[in-house]
Specification:
The protein is mainly α and 183 residues long. The chain has 9 helices and no strands. The protein has helices at 5-22, 30-54, 60-75, 80-100, 105-116, 125-128, 130-141, 143-151, 155-179. Helix 2 (30-54) runs antiparallel to helix 5, helix 2 (30-54) runs parallel beside helix 9 and helix 4 (80-100) packs antiparallel against helix 5. The protein is elongated and about 50 Å long.
């Protein structure tokens, strides 16, 4: 297998950039902040697919999960527990791809949506540490923003976010596999 390390590193950086850029949806309002992981799932699929078709062994998801964890830890956006959750989800994504075949389209179609759930860990404190999240939202974005944000802290919104993220992750990687077939 011929490794293209420069391209792979570039695709990884672009994936992280797209995830980070998607978070700016939160500046449009609290709904944008809560649902930006779904947008990042859609937009990041192209970069994941192109990495996965070059890296046909275990580790694409794990690498992206670790890279995302380190990036968010360095930015002060998540804590160590969230980094562990992100990395665990990423490893599960790799095991899905392993079980379905590294060269198979179905392996990529099933692994990426799971990997896309990693980004939800960035906003997960809204549901697991609501008071802390509210306090920080008031400080950073103002009282009205924080109130709307907290109104979305029900388990149903989290389940909706997971569902939409999985769907858009699948849709994104489905389109990527159609537009950029294996060479």
């Amino acid at each position: 297998m011929k490794h293209q390390y420069g391209k792979m590193l570039g695709l990884s950086v672009l994936y992280l950039f797209v995830v980070y850029l998607s978070a700016f949806l939160g500046f449009l309002g609290p709904v944008g902040w809560v649902f930006f992981p779904a947008l990042s799932a859609l937009l990041g699929a192209y970069f994941y697919y192109n990495l996965a078709r070059r890296w046909q062994t275990f580790g694409v998801g794990t690498w992206l999960g670790i890279a995302l964890s380190v990036f968010l830890l360095l930015k002060g956006e998540i804590n160590g527990e969230a980094a562990i959750i992100i990395t665990t989800i990423a490893v599960v994504s790799d095991f899905i791809r392993l079980s379905l075949g590294y060269k198979s389209r179905i392996g990529i179609l099933c692994a990426y949506p799971v990997l896309s759930l990693c980004v939800i860990c960035w906003v997960l404190p809204l549901w697991i540490n609501t008071d802390w999240y509210y306090s920080n939202a008031v400080d950073e974005m103002g009282l009205n923003y924080a109130r709307v944000l907290i109104s979305m802290s029900s388990i149903w919104v989290l389940l909706l976010l997971v569902t939409i993220t999985l769907f858009l992750g699948y849709l994104g990687v489905f389109v990527a596999t159609k537009e950029c077939p294996n060479e």
